[in-house]
Amino acid sequence: MAAISREEVAHLARLSRLAVTDEELDTFAGQLDVILQAVARVGEVTAGDIPPTSHSVPLTNVFRDDVVRPGLNREDALAGAPDAEDGRFRVPRILDEEV
Amino acid sequence: MSDLTRMTAAQLAGLIAGGETSAVEVARAHLDRIAAVDDRVHAFLHVDAEGALEAARAVDARRAAGEELGPLAGVPVGVKDVVTTRGVPTTAGSKILEGWRPPYDATIVERLRAAGTVMLGKTNMDEFAMGSSTEYSAYGPTNNPWDLGRIPGGSGGGSAAALAAYEAPLTIGTDTGGSIRQPGAVTGTVGAKPTYGGTSRYGLIAFSSSLDTPGPCARTVEDAALLHAVIAGHDPRDSTSIPAPVPPVVEAARLGATGDLTGVKLGLVTQFAGEGAEPGVMAAFRDAVDALTKLGAEIVEVSCPNFEYALPAYYLIAPSECSSNLARFDGVRFGLRVGDDGAKSLEEVMSITRDAGFGPEVKRRIMLGTYALSSGYYDAYYGQAQKVRTLITRDFTAAFEQVDALISPTTPFVAFPFGARTSDPYQMYLADLYTIPTNLYGGPAISVPCGLSEGLPVGLQVMAPTMADDRMYRVASALESAVGTLTPPAL
């Protein structure tokens, strides 16, 4: 039995903000199924009361002194933007006109 | 002057400091070499000739003024294109960042500049460092100098191939699951992954933040150690940077070069005993183990029972982190924007941009990570993988109570022909079978050439405890003193 269906992959693509084509969906569904069946092997390990590891460095709550330091100026911050206007990032339409 | 491009970084620095050549001459020699061979190798995505010569002139001026130069002053270096370089194009091998010029330098780049190294340009890689062959670079693959029809490893294939093609004596890589070590192995060069937190991630375009580790690539172990020493050390701009002194890696490499490993205990991992590796790789590895024994090392077998779950755990943890990290590519603040016709919504433009800008492996991993983190699957996949990570760490800790370091082949197979593993992504993932456990644990590991199989390089990996990076340099350097460096056929 497949670990993941084509419909589930389509849903994942939507959640991931990827406008995949039908052709891509066909390819990815098969490939993700193979990968998921392989990685599901982690379930074979008995690990009920084992604490999870999120990263390997034994540090928590690393703070710096609260002092003002130079940061990016507006010009530099906007320099790589696909579109900018009046010193701001310009974005596509965010409000639905029909509402 | 004999060919400057054939020299080690240590030799070049000595010649420049002694006034026998200039940093400008050294930079020119490498830029000429790139111009001569890189159309065939394609190790570089961007060559910054002007910037390199300017940096070289500054080193020569400092020397003329009688200033003390650092140990790598004037030595050229290539930087993997996932590392930000102020004003110099940085794409991470992706179309979504084509033409982007970062407004700041990564910490390791700041340190390279401060040390007087001369940046030649940016090296090719699998898109966002996801891959083992550079076939997932949006700008076309890098060709292995040993056989131009074969992969140079990945994701840092450009950094490794640039060394093997004598285009640079030093390069920077990043290692999330083996992206420094596996390219080192298949190109006959040296690649070291420092302890996680030992080198700063500030300015690395993030793939998997709990695993990403920048590190040195070179043709000799001593050169790798010299570069390691320049880029390593605490950085307050990286919250997982370890506030401790850099291990004495250069001294350890020089100690190892004496060829004496008396009193050093090395472990062979039972779970790595041949399964999945090519016979030629295992034969070269066994010869190297014999060589290490002759140098005085004691070899014992060590069991790490959870290592067989490292690959599955990695391919849940790394994609999960990547699905979050790559959300920043939204077509608003930097990079590509596609489909903005004034009628489409932000969300539509974002989805069209991301589908157009990301390649297939990146999309697979984003979707895989989104799945592993989604409600209903989180505990069984991501949560379980994090527990397995704990068990793998315990395996390492227990192993290092018995031995000083672990050794294995770096990768199960030699450089494979282009196209051999792209149709079945999981076959590509197997390239990192032996390198991934270290990333989950966070310790350092190095790949050093140990011989040939069917005329192609084989690498031996040395894995050491966290913050004992010096140990792996000592062992790797001793092996290098016994088996020598590898020279590819002339291009």
UniProtKB/TrEMBL annotation, chain A:
Protein name: Aspartyl/glutamyl-tRNA(Asn/Gln) amidotransferase subunit C
EC number: 6.3.5.-
Keyword set, alphabetical order: ATP-binding, Ligase, Nucleotide-binding, Protein biosynthesis, Transferase
Source organism of this protein record: Micromonospora pattaloongensis
Self-association state and partner proteins as the record states: Heterotrimer of A, B and C subunits.
Gene3D superfamilies documented for this protein: Glu-tRNAGln amidotransferase C subunit, N-terminal domain
Family named by the database record: Belongs to the GatC family.
UniProt KW ATP-binding keyword: yes
HAMAP family: GatC
Alphabetical GO biological process terms: glutaminyl-tRNAGln biosynthesis via transamidation; regulation of translational fidelity; translation
Membrane is among the record's keywords: no
MF annotations from Gene Ontology: asparaginyl-tRNA synthase (glutamine-hydrolyzing) activity; ATP binding; glutaminyl-tRNA synthase (glutamine-hydrolyzing) activity; transferase activity
Described purpose of this protein according to its UniProt entry: Allows the formation of correctly charged Asn-tRNA(Asn) or Gln-tRNA(Gln) through the transamidation of misacylated Asp-tRNA(Asn) or Glu-tRNA(Gln) in organisms which lack either or both of asparaginyl-tRNA or glutaminyl-tRNA synthetases. The reaction takes place in the presence of glutamine and ATP through an activated phospho-Asp-tRNA(Asn) or phospho-Glu-tRNA(Gln).
Catalysed reactions listed for this entry: L-glutamyl-tRNA(Gln) + L-glutamine + ATP + H2O = L-glutaminyl-tRNA(Gln) + L-glutamate + ADP + phosphate + H(+); L-aspartyl-tRNA(Asn) + L-glutamine + ATP + H2O = L-asparaginyl-tRNA(Asn) + L-glutamate + ADP + phosphate + 2 H(+)
TrEMBL record, chain B:
Cellular component terms per the entry's GO annotation: glutamyl-tRNA(Gln) amidotransferase complex
Keywords for this protein: ATP-binding, Ligase, Nucleotide-binding, Protein biosynthesis, Transferase
Pfam families assigned: Amidase (PF01425)
EC number assigned by the record: 6.3.5.7
Gene Ontology molecular-function annotations: ATP binding; glutaminyl-tRNA synthase (glutamine-hydrolyzing) activity; transferase activity
Reaction(s) the record says it catalyses: L-glutamyl-tRNA(Gln) + L-glutamine + ATP + H2O = L-glutaminyl-tRNA(Gln) + L-glutamate + ADP + phosphate + H(+)
Record protein name field: Glutamyl-tRNA(Gln) amidotransferase subunit A
Membrane-crossing segments per the record: none
